[in-house]
């Protein structure tokens, strides 16, 4: 069995790296994130693993299998955080992978497939406004030119940040894993939402990861004096923006059964004075879901409704597509395997979508993937109050380990190891 005390100690030790009085701050490629990965590397080496850092800064630690020619089974997550973040987020997924290997060592269990542990670089978009750089590079989904101009809030270019970290940006594409390097990849993560806690369920079996379609919408009317302009003669850009917001919410609610959501997360009003009818507004819209068809219906509705507003309110509306990503489905066999483990261990679970993006969605370009969620207390994430009960974490690790062993194939277990499983 995995050791709760050992995991808690490891969690506490890494949780001190980047800790501030306003939460965690281990930004991608920062000194603090480097300290966290160095700590992880030290723990991996102590567990007898070989470790390498690829050209994107991903840490890959290997527990060799008895048939090294077979593709490895991968597990892991990320160690970087947002500004004023929490201690759990991706960290528990990285440490869960480490604890599984420690437990296999304790029980003297050998597997045919090697087991690779991953600590992905720059999963969070907090520093550069671009997420999952490490796993995207590993999956061959980005090239140097795609991110060469990225800068952080201090104006540091990503190329110089790479150099400070001891990485050569010009070699980024060398991080791509060879085809068939992995037999499967699995990630454990906090839910970052309220569903599991509300249902008193310790395990969420992720069926798919939502992908966003994002727009920048500019609504132009006519600025006018708020006191002297009659209501029936106004071209109020904010009213148009409000209608977009309300109608988009209604349409997304009609798609709730498919897990699709829509958000107007930012509105800028010009000129922004109390006594002036708004002449211009800028909206940032995020539509996401795990069903491409459902998401496309909401997007089509948006385009149609903008045409309606142009005609009825005589507004000039520009709509710029910022991104249009494809949702990722988890592998059906891995889903079935995780659910089988839960039934065998009599652990309550539900199937659910992931509204947030994760490294797993990029690893799907390389191999079959699966994902396990554990509850977030209060649904809180990316915040200093982020918390997941230790018992729930251990339950998640127990399920993940069994699913990994099914894929990695147990080759041998010594008598000492067999006694430890009793």
UniProtKB/TrEMBL annotation:
Record-level Gene Ontology MF annotations: hydrolase activity
InterPro entries according to UniProt: Amidase_Cbmase, ArgE/DapE_CS, Bact_exopeptidase_dim_dom, Peptidase_M20, Peptidase_M20_dimer
Gene3D superfamilies to which the protein is assigned, alphabetical: 3.30.70.360, Zn peptidases
Keywords recorded for this protein, A-Z: Hydrolase
Domain Peptidase M20 dimerisation: 214-307
PANTHER family: ALLANTOATE AMIDOHYDROLASE, ALLANTOATE DEIMINASE-RELATED
Family, per entry: Belongs to the peptidase M20 family.
Name this protein carries in UniProt: Zn-dependent hydrolase
Organism ancestry: Bacteria, Bacillati, Bacillota, Bacilli, Bacillales
